[in-house]
Amino acid sequence: MLRAERLSLAYPGRTLLEGLTLEFRPGQFGRYLAAMAAANPRCCMCFAALRRPQAGAALLDGAPLDSMPRRRLARRIGVLLQEETHEFWGSVPTSCCSAAIRMRSARSAGT
């Protein structure tokens, strides 16, 4: 189970989120929307152990994420952030297919 306990997030000069407690059970889909939009990606990053909260903890099966080896986390948690860049555009299937085509083209060109 992935859980936030009294999670608080801040960005220089402002508090984004204070005292969030929620949990996601295996196989469960959930959604979370903060009143301040900047809190949403930072909360996801805490759940992926990519950012530390200012207070509280993100836990996986009762253990703090920041105490777990990265490989173990990678086997258990997957996150797809919605920041669009020139490397990732469109939908996930479109981007995956485009990447596969580019890799195949590069191999056949000998690069």
Keywords:
alpha+beta; 2 domains
How many separate domains?
Answer: 2
Distance between the termini: 44 Å
Q: What is the strand tally?
A: 4
Strand order of the largest sheet: 2-1-3-4
Secondary-structure element series: EEHEEHH
Low-confidence stretches: none
What is the SS-derived class? alpha+beta
Anisotropy-based shape: globular
Q: Write down the overall mean pLDDT.
A: 75
Biggest sheet layout = 4 strands, antiparallel
Number of helices: 3
Radius of gyration over C-alpha positions, nearest whole angstrom: 17 Å
Strand portion: 25-35%
In percent, how helical is the residue content? Answer: 25-40%
How would you describe what is shown here?
- The protein has 111 residues and is α+β, with helices and mostly antiparallel strands.
- The chain folds into two domains: 2-79, no CATH class; 80-111.
- It contains three helices and four strands; from the N terminus they run E-E-H-E-E-H-H.
- A four-stranded antiparallel beta sheet has the order 2-1-3-4, covered by helices on one side.
- The longest helix has 18 residues, at 92-109.
- The protein is globular, with a radius of gyration of 17 Å.
